[in-house]
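[audit] Reproducing an earlier prediction to check determinism. Same input, same settings, fresh worker. If the tokens differ from the archived copy the diff job will pick it up downstream; this log only records the rerun itself.
[audit] input (87 residues):
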Amino acid sequence: MSRWAQRLMSIAWPAFLAACGMELLVFGMVDPLDMQWFGGSPPPLSRQGVYTVAFFAFWAVAMVACSLTALLVQPAKDPFVEPGSGR
């Protein structure tokens, strides 16, 4: 597996699991057809459509969080090491 694919999966898999958990928590307490949108109208999608759109939205938010974590975990470059010094 290439390094790029490994990094992508190390971000996507935990985000997928987090999205599953968020989906269970949110829709364990809220029925999508009881929700009201901005104009006070019911959602234009079926119950399953709301579940699907919400899952991908949760997954996208979790992927951003996992990506930021992966970015912050990278070791910082030492500003005192000269390029090419072998350190």
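[audit] rerun output stored. Observation attached for the diff report: The CA atoms of residues 21 and 58 lie 9 Å apart.
[audit] end
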